[in-house]
Amino acid sequence: MEVRKIISSLCYFSVFFAPFLFPIVVYFVADEHEMKKHAKASFISHLIPALTFFLFFAVFIPGMPVSGDLVFGWALMMMILFGLLSFIIMVWNVVKGIKVLMS
After folding, report:
1. In Å, how far are 12, 73, 76, 93 from 79, measured between CA atoms?
2. Dihedral sign computed on CA atoms, order 86, 92, 96, 98
3. What is this structure's pTM?
């Protein structure tokens, strides 16, 4: 197995051990265009849940109604959506990592 395939797939699998650090290091250290492409794609996919989390607090929290039941409903809905998005992105990273290894 080629080293570039292993490193490229580890960029996607790093969602489990170093979501931001590993793809950034590979992007700046690697010389091959293919590895840089996979490192960039995996970094962006790892960044999406973090951005949605901060977006939730920046946009939705200030505009939330004051009533306790509505706040609980909003928070529960946002947690479910955030969890679902994170799960989908995690599965996507695993699938992409396996595809890179098999190609």
Report:
1. 24, 10, 5, 21
2. positive
3. 0.78
Question: Using one digit for the tens of pLDDT, what is the confidence trace for 2-26?
Answer: 888 999 999 999 988 888 889 999 9
Residue type, 10: L
- The whole-angstrom separation of Cα 15 and Cα 98 is 13
Measured in whole angstroms, how far is the alpha carbon of residue 66 from the centre of its chain? 32
Largest CA distance in the chain: 58
| Tens of pLDDT, residues 58-78 | 766 666 666 666 667 777 887
DSSP string, 18-79: -TTHHHHHHHHH--SHHHHHHHHHHHHHHHHHHHHHHHIIIIITTT--SSHHHHHHHHHHHH
**Percentage of residues of the chain with pLDDT beyond 70:** 85
d(CA 42, CA 29): 15
